[in-house]
Description:
Keywords: Membrane, Transmembrane, Transmembrane helix, Transport
Subcellular location: Membrane
Organism: Lineolata rhizophorae
GO molecular function: carbohydrate:proton symporter activity
InterPro entries: MFS_dom, MFS_sugar_transport-like, MFS_Sugar_Transporters, MFS_trans_sf, Sugar/inositol_transpt
Helix content: over 70%
Amino acid sequence: xxxxxxxxxxxxxxxxxxIACSSGFLLFGYxxxxxxxxxxxxxxxxxxxxxxxxxxxxxxxIYDIGGAAGAIFCFFFGNVFGRKRMLIIGCVVAIVGAILxxxxxxxxxxxxxxxxxxxxxxxxxxxxxxxxxxxxxAHNRGALMSIELVLCATxxxxxQWINYGFGGDDGAGAYQFPILFQLVFLAFTILLVPMLPExxxxxxxxxxxxxAALSLVRxxxxxxxxxxxxxxxxxxxxxxxxxxxxxxxxxxLKSLFQSGPTQNGKRxxxxxxxxxxxxxxxxxxxxxxxxxxxxxxxxxxxxDSLWIAGLTSIISLSFAVLPVFFIDRIGRIPTLTAGAVGQxxxxxxxxxxxxxxxxxxxxxxxxxxxxxxxxxxxxxAIFSATWLGPSWMYGPEILPLKGRATGMxxxxxxxxxxxxxxxxxxxxxxxxxxxxYYVILGVFNVCFVPVLLLFFVETKGRSLEDLDxxxxxxxxxxxxxxxxxEAVHRAHELEPKGAQRVEEAD
Length: 506
């Protein structure tokens, strides 16, 4: 296959790889925001017979069931297909889902489309972070992964403002165009991914050392070749970690739920918890339902609700840029902790305002409404600057080499299932308990703080192999680590130095 990027190296190939990963997250962000606008269009309401709050919750939330199914697929097959193939499969499935949704005339087809689209995006969200983390260097890995989430916020912005652009359209276009527009991102990703290098860490874990070396060369500097000391040292570190994970002889799937030399169970738990916390923060209770919330509780028109909701995406994008500049200096855990405190305060204030909302239509009600919207904006700003990027980068960083795809699949299952929970319960919760729902979300955020500070490990500035060695060094006094180092060193003394150059066959 002709590959115009095959001869590119270093920063150039890393830039294209980041663009490919960001395109996948652009779709993710777009899908998170697009349905909040289309569910209030006259076409949607007429076509699907004015769904009540419960059916509306199912239509929104069943997408998350699909996302969980896509993550489960990656749990079992992520290590088999590799990062690139899994991304392409995810894009193809998401295309089918988008077409089914955009052409739906019945609730049944809409639900199938939502599930299929969710499966595709679940595969993408389980894989993109792995590919980026495994092809980045420790000093700028956080910044590159933060860029992906900037594009996620960009997707949300596009979705909300495309919906606003169709705010005066009562026809099919106001529903169909926003849904089908995501095909543009998917087609671009499918074209770009095959031109880029596969993860050298996945290749090494599969025993494909020659291809891993070639991938490292493409990701390295212009001076690197397969025999250069830097490439060989990096390859040796990857081999050492791969052998370390096999020392206890436990089958790889079981090892994810046990301790072992690299403490896989503990690390999978941290990855799952961080994704669960992200959803329990309440972000999608706002993302999905800002227009509905504004119409129901503040009395705004459909058009006003759409442009007010659209401002949240502008704020989200503006603040999502900030971690690109500070996340590799401040670190993941301090950023997440500070964000949890701020988010909790915002929800407590919103709850207090809703609890004392004056009678609808009065000037006082308008003032309260403005205050509520202001704190929703502040929540989005804090979330985007502190949780949007770090929560998605933490799992790929903390997980072990051979269990990375499987562990990330488990973590993303947690993300989608709790996303489902929040999206499903938000309409009836707002209907039945009103302002108290925001008190619950505020309490969740406050509870994250001690858990993060006491039980989570900082990943900034450490290579993925360094993190494996860190956990191994804390397991039984590091005896397994020393044994692995000796085994790898002995193996390299017996093997010829350098990897043989072969044709890349990704």
